Amino acid sequence: MNININFESLRDNLVYVIKESQIKLGYTPNAVRLNYPLDSLNRFFGTNLDKEGMQATLSEFVDYVKDELGEIEISEFEGMFTLIVPPQGAQFVHENIKDSGFLTELIELLKNAGYAITIADILVVFNKYSDKVKCVETKNNDEFNYVVWFEDGKPDNFKYCIHIDLGHAIYHRLAPQDFEAYGF
Question: Span 125-147, mean pLDDT?
């Protein structure tokens, strides 16, 4: 096994994305398919691998997480890797990964606020879970109006890209390394 590669970063991302899905949609004992571009995987691992090198590294990753997440299947098409986490992995996340409450509260706010939500409403939820919240309004960005994150990485280290239009809000969570690489 390549001991120079940090598999925890991708493991944590898989777990958090599955947990987010379970919060939004509820738990089902089904396989979960997640897609990652080659460049994103390289950022998770701190590598600069080609497709073949990444395939080999992901094979090692599968061994690394199989006790928790089961035997993950991997496929690649044109630089996009699909990781299929079996039902065992979904069950592991459901039973062992607890939500701090933050993500559940944020999702509920956005789902139930109707068409009257403001960034101030959203920041109330962030500030409830940390006094180290950073909010930046974006300029000249058609995809989102604000980026909000926890400066100390607690309860999570994602960058929340929030788009508010006509009082309705949506968000996308990006890993910090992906956020920086996209140049936002």
Answer: 92
Among 29, 155, 156, 158, residue whose Cα is nearest residue 95: 29
pLDDT of residue 184: 59
- Whole-number pLDDT of residue 3: 52
Characterise 40 by phi-psi region: left (phi > 0), alpha (psi -120 to 50), beta (else).
Answer: alpha
Distance CA(18)–CA(86), nearest Å, equals 11
Torsion of CA 166, 168, 173, 176, to 10 degrees: 40
pLDDT of residue 2: 52
